[in-house]
Amino acid sequence: EVVATGSESRQQSLVRLAAAKAGVWLTRNNVGVLLDANGRPVRFGLANESPAQNKVTKSGDLIGIDPVLIKPYHVGKVIGQFVSIEMKYEGWKFNPKDTHEAAQLNWCNFVLAKGGRAMFANGPDIFTNGAWK
After folding, report:
1. What is the pLDDT along the chain (133 residues), one digit of tens a residue?
2. What whole-number distance in Å separates Cα of residue 61 and Cα of residue 121?
3. What is the DSSP letter of 71?
4. Cα 92 from Cα 55, distance rounded (Å)
5. Rounded CA separation 114/51 (Å)
6. Which of 116, 8, 104 lies closest to 56, judged by CA?
7. Residue pair 80/68 in contact by the 8 Å Cβ criterion
8. pTM recorded for the entire structure
9. Which of 2, 104, 111, 115 is spaced 20 to 30 A from 49 at the CA atom?
10. How far apart are CA 62 and CA 126, in angstroms?
11. d(Cα 131, Cα 115) in Å, to the nearest integer?
12. Burial level of 85, CB count in 10 A (0-12/13-18/19+)?
């Protein structure tokens, strides 16, 4: 398979490689609905329990865990912080009028409000420019 330079797929691969080097575990979050053997819809993926939920909240393409060393006032234990990354093509810019992107932003804001890390990304620089830690 040939992957176009700057495509979302290529950028996702680069982000996953950079994340691994930074110690962040990421996996693909496939979201959708398929029919079972009896013709009943089976929904899969995070935040996709109903069509109504999926319309207003769209979970990120990559989901993972970032090991975080808690400071002494937290007894020095390492915890895993939830991570969600919505991948975009190289050069992408957020469009607030796009309802799909607005629903993706709703998910990011939900994760952030719960103490996780969530963002849009269009390349590995989120890990390679030193901004992640």
Report:
1. 555 678 999 999 999 999 999 999 999 999 999 999 999 999 999 999 999 999 999 999 999 999 988 888 778 888 899 999 999 999 999 999 999 999 999 999 999 999 999 999 999 998 888 777 7
2. 10
3. P
4. 22
5. 23
6. 104
7. yes
8. 0.85
9. 115
10. 14
11. 18
12. buried
Alpha carbon of residue 97 to chain centroid = 21
Neighbours of 103 (CB within 10 A): 17
How many other C-beta atoms are found inside a 10 Å radius of the C-beta of residue 66? 19
What is the per-residue pLDDT for 4? 62
Beta strands in the chain (DSSP E): 25-28, 32-35, 41-44, 62-69, 78-87, 117-121
Rg (CA), the chain: 16
Pairing relationship of beta strands 32-35 and 41-44 according to DSSP bridges: antiparallel
- Nearest in space to 103 (alpha carbons), one of 46, 64, 26: 46
Helix H or strand E encompassing 107: helix 99-113
Closest CA to 123 of 85, 96, 97, 95: 85
